[in-house]
Amino acid sequence: MKLSDIVTPGLIFNNIKSNQKSLCLNEIIKNICSFDKSLNYELTQKLVFEREDLCSTALDNHIAIPHAKIPGLTKSYCALAICKNGINFGSVDGQKTKIIIMLLHPESDTKNHLLVLKNIANLFSIKELISKVIDSNDSFDIFNIIKNYENKQI
Fold it and tell me: Which residues contact 44 (CB under 8 A, 6 or more apart)?
């Protein structure tokens, strides 16, 4: 499962206003729950924050992948948010996080959950892709950038 299989331009937010980790996560969760009203905001927030409290999901190269398995979900959700100024997310390289990719998976979907995490980590190890995504101001362009780079990796 590729990132472009579960993210849509409607869930790409190209200029998150929050400048703190907790506020940023809340903003993304609210956006996802607004996109699909059947999602339970309180439960989603609780589980995302519990996972983040275990260990920061920030990687290197300005990327974080907060994620949670949500009981009752029947499909996976993904939102991609960009904070051009960056947020202190606790990354392994000490750099501010600028691209936050939030994943919500059904509780029983361990296989796809791990596959998507791996694919995102591989995809966003490409510095040129990261720069293009951060520099773009259009969610459709960001989606197409991601899709093009995924196709190059096949």
Answer: 29, 32, 33, 68, 70, 104
Q: How far apart are CA 83 and CA 33, in angstroms?
A: 19
As to burial, measured by CB atoms within 10 angstroms (0-12 exposed, 13-18 middle, 19+ buried), residue 91 is buried
Residue 20 lies in domain: 3-153
Instruction: Give the residues across from 99 on adjacent strands.
Output: 63, 82
Residue in the structure block whose two tokens are 């996802």:
32
pLDDT digits (tens, 9 = 90+) for 45-63: 999 999 999 888 888 889 9
CB 36 within 8 A of CB 53: no
Q: Distance of CA 51 to CAs 13, 109, 132, Å?
A: 22, 16, 29
Query: Residue 149 is part of a domain; what is its CATH number?
Result: 3.40.930.10
Number of domains in the chain: 1
% of the chain with per-residue pLDDT over 90: 56
Report residue 15's pLDDT band, with 50, 70 and 90 as the boundaries. confident
In which element (H, E) is residue 100 found? strand 97-106
